[in-house]
Design goal:
The chain is an alpha/beta fold. The protein folds into two domains: about 1-40 and about 110-190 and about 285-348, FAD/NAD(P)-binding domain (3-Layer(bba) Sandwich), CATH 3.50.50.60; about 40-110 and about 190-285, Polyamine Oxidase, Chain A, domain 2. The chain has helices at about 10-20, 60-70, 110-120, 160-170, 175-185, 205, 250-265, 330-345, and strands at about 1-5, 25-30, 40, 50, 75, 80-85, 95, 105, 125-130, 135-140, 145, 150-155, 155-160, 170, 195-200, 215, 220-225, 235-240, 275-280, 315. The strands form five sheets. The protein has a seven-stranded mixed beta sheet, covered by helices on one side. A hairpin with a 3-residue loop joins strand 11 and strand 12 (about 150-155). Helix 1 runs parallel beside helix 3 and helix 2 packs across helix 8 (about 330-345). The longest helix has 19 residues, at about 330-345. Bound molecules: flavin-adenine dinucleotide (FAD).
């Protein structure tokens, strides 16, 4: 029996590959939901808005191949060469032209469609929620994985960001110190970001010939984009706010976002249906404080993660372990391919 820790994209996809080969497994997930850093929420207007992963490009070929295999559609992010820009929250709003960029895509119906589609391929009894792994004990022929319960298995795949397992899971015997040091200094992509989304009954920005794109280096909103659904029948704006706003209360943060939106788009911005936000640094199953400053993507894809440990009983996955596009959804798909293939090879 294999055990996969984490039901994010990399863990679920590994399960999908193992199931295709008839290899039995269970997935342990700490949260009460699957998807990890992918989380589409719908709200009272049933408009899909992304609190986590959203965009990909034509370079993300592993993800695109998976979407094609699962017959999931995707569409181009609605954009324009004119964007609104505010150099500080007291400066005037300017309309500026930006050079045309390669289009980024979104998954039709929301990124969670990818997660739901993988779930449909798996048996629900193989995915156990509310199971936070606290320790892993390796013996000669078996591995014990301990949550509030004890699971005895043959092999374990850690499909969670390296910083999380290196600081939260106790290993017996201890893992090599070099591996722990590198894992603790491995940046988890977007772990400290704050995503916001507002849904509307009308795309009022279109009436003013605006794309919905807005940038500000200071914030509160630093990046904002049109976030209508692919049929353009549901209307939303979605983006990021400055991470330092995590220190405000929910009410103060929300007030500052709405004030800036009114400054940028006028009074109609206040007529929203839903306000959604996710402060990822409050998500204990994603965020882990670092001992020192880590630059974005630091140690992502480090070769040390491609080794197996405890005599081929412990394998490292997650997007941050991937040799290609680590930190992104494409990296999670790549990591799942690589680790599933290693397991399949050990079964031959
Ligand atoms: C705000 C935000 C925006 C993003 N935007 C984009 C984007 O536009 N494009 C893009 O390509 N990528 C984006 N990403 C990154 C993308 O979400 C990730 O690369 C991808 O989802 C990682 O998948 P994963 O399975 O490797 O890890 P995760 O999604 O982190 O999954 C790990 C899982 O393990 C679980 N877990 C953690 N600890 C334990 C434990 N001790 N025991 C059991 N389970 C545990 C977690 O709950 C989680 O479900 C974004 C991420 C965020 C947060």
């Amino acid at each position: 029996m294999m055990l996969i820790i984490g039901a994010g994209l990399s863990g679920l996809l590994t399960g999908y590959f193992l199931k295709k080969e008839g290899i039995p497994f269970k997935i342990l997930e700490a949260r009460e939901r699957v998807g990890g850093r992918i989380n589409t929420v719908y709200g009272i207007s049933n408009t899909p808005v992304e609190m986590g992963a959203t965009w990909f490009t034509n370079q993300h070929k592993h993800l695109i191949a998976l979407l094609n295999e699962l017959e999931l559609n995707y569409f181009d992010q609605h954009t324009d060469s004119s964007v609104l820009f505010q150099s500080s929250n007291t400066s005037p709003i300017q309309s500026i032209k930006i050079p045309s960029q390669q289009p980024s895509h979104r998954i039709a119906g929301g990124t969670s469609h990818l997660i739901e589609s993988l779930l449909q391929k798996l048996d629900s009894k193989d995915i156990l929620l509310n199971q936070s792994v606290k320790s892993i004990k390796c013996y000669e022929n078996t591995v014990q994985v301990i949550t509030n319960e004890v699971f005895e298995v043959h092999k374990v795949i850690m499909a969670i960001p390296p910083k999380l397992w290196s600081k939260r899971i106790v290993f017996e015997p201890a893992l090599p110190q070099q591996l722990i040091d590198i894992a603790q200094q491995t940046h988890t992509w977007m772990e400290d970001s704050i995503k916001i989304a507002l849904t509307y009954s009308l795309p009022f920005w279109e009436g003013e010939n605006l794309s919905g794109t807005f940038y500000s280096p200071t914030g509160p909103i630093t990046e904002l984009y049109d976030h209508c659904n692919h049929q353009r029948t549901k209307y939303a704006l979605c983006g990021f706010i400055n991470s330092s706003f995590k220190n405000l209360s929910y009410a103060d943060r929300r007030r500052s976002v709405i004030k800036q939106l009114k400054d940028v788009f006028g009074n109609q911005a206040e007529e929203f249906i839903d306000y959604n936000e996710c402060v990822w640094s409050e998500e204990e199953n994603t965020f882990q404080p670092s001992d020192e400053f880590l630059y974005p993507h630091q140690n992502n894809g480090n070769l040390i993660f491609s080794n197996s440990y405890f005599d081929d009983k412990l394998f490292i996955s997650s997007s941050e372990s991937a040799a290609e596009f680590p930190g992104y959804m494409d990296g999670a798909v790549y990591a799942a391919h690589v680790v599933a293939q290693k397991i399949i090879n050990t079964q031959l």
